[in-house]
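If your schedule permits, I should be very grateful for your opinion on a structural question. I would ask you to consider whether the tokens describe a fold that such a sequence might reasonably adopt. Thank you for your consideration; the sequence and its tokens are set out here.
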Amino acid sequence: MRMKDCLLLLASLVSLAPPVFALAADRILGFSARGVLLVSVPLLLVLLAIFVYALRTRHRIHGLILWGLVGGLLGTVALDAVRLVGVRLGAFPMDMPRMFGLIGGGLAPEFQTNTMATLVKATADLPEEQRREVMRRRLHFLASVDETSRRAFIGAMMKGLLDLPPEKRMEMISTQMSLLGELDPEASGWVSASMSTVMGGGPALPVFPSGIELYLRVPRVPMNEFRTAAEFSYPRTLDEAMWSDGRVAALGYLWHFMIGATLGIAYTLLFGRGRWLWAFGWGAFVWLAMMLLMPVMMPMIHFPWWFPAVPFVAHMAMAVAIGGVALRFVKPEADAKSFVGLWRLDRQSAAAPG
């Protein structure tokens, strides 16, 4: 393979990482998505520089980038045509680009706090035995996390308690004190001390564990219960932050389409014109990655067994657009500059006599 072509391809692929990496870094690794994106802006400029360089020097990689971009954007539209129907039918926990907007705006911890506060209100309406079991799981969870995270969760629960009528609030507090006695003395002491600190006005910043740690420990709620809670916690979060829904949606959908664009460009850089089988394989790969990441990104949710179905159809629709654009518009000269194209030429050269 020609070293120059390989370096351009590798640099282009690396420059596509920020939109997806920032999302994973925020939800799974505990880094700020805004910080990651700001640091990663130079990488996006690298892709632009490569495209301009390719245009000026007539290097055919510009065709891969251009038609990958077009395919990725059209693929995102096709994906959304299916996804938004799923949102209306309750097949998703919420409109995911709006979740991206909350993350990008730094509002995800506040949304998490308000969602937990709303779930506390829902717990208060449960029959006594069911309520005790839910609260028992939550107290055991509180005893298992670090002090900063424990205060964050207790602060969210306190917010929910303060939203209750006085009689319901006292009922919940009474149950909570009774259940504290079931913990071992050391764990009970940790939780009680954190509660006293938060109730006494101590800091309870919404600093939650990273996605993996939270996923392994947190008691989950069914997706439909989370969705119901989010219908209240989402507008509350916007009101408290003085953000409009349009602002969150604009930021989230921009990020959503950036991810789609990078997936389209990555496909053409790797496969060139490709084949329909490769396009559907790419869609299945992206779908599988989403299915593996979603539970860790939204660890409070117990996803139903049928949840992967609608995203799968949506990603196949995306694959049709990406694959169709590549097959129709990527020229043979550009196809030869993809990784598959270079590998094919390398094999042909190696097999040539002499």
Summary: The CA atoms of residues 154 and 195 lie 7 Å apart. Residues 108-241 form one domain. The two ends are 18 Å apart (CA to CA). The chain has two domains: 3-100+245-351, 108-241.
